[in-house]
Amino acid sequence: MERSLFMDSVITDHCVLVADSDASLTAVYERYLKSQGLRVFVASDGIACLETLQNVRPDVLVLDSDLLWGGADGVLSHLRDKQTLLATDVILVTDAPPRESAALVVPPVIATLRKPFRLRSLLELLQARESTLSKYQ
Predict the structure, then answer these.
(1) Number of CB atoms found within 10 A of residue 23's CB
(2) Which of 7, 65, 110, 127 is the most exposed, fewest CB within 10 Å of its CB?
(3) Which stretch of DSSP H or E encloses residue 30?
(4) Model pTM score
(5) Do 45 and 67 touch, CB atoms closer than 8 A?
């Protein structure tokens, strides 16, 4: 069994919202991230994602670029328009080639993951974000 990398973290209430239209993928993400000590919420479309963002205010949003009903562009536009939501960092999941993916890293997007990716890669991005934040607190 893999040791949780967030269990020993100072922040014990780290919250992630996973927004993806593929229910089987969100179930896998949710199970893995919870096993690592994170609180996880899921949304299956753009509308549910925006509703959850209003109610939960996660630390990180893992956002599929092909999200139904509003898509990633709609969600990102809303995040950029609402100053209170700008504190939510976004990891964008995309099937775009690396060169195109790099152009997508504009706040609030802090990183991209190219499909398919290993769950460990997602966890490492979350840990890197946490490590960077702790340096400035």
Answers:
(1) 10
(2) 7
(3) helix 23-35
(4) 0.85
(5) yes
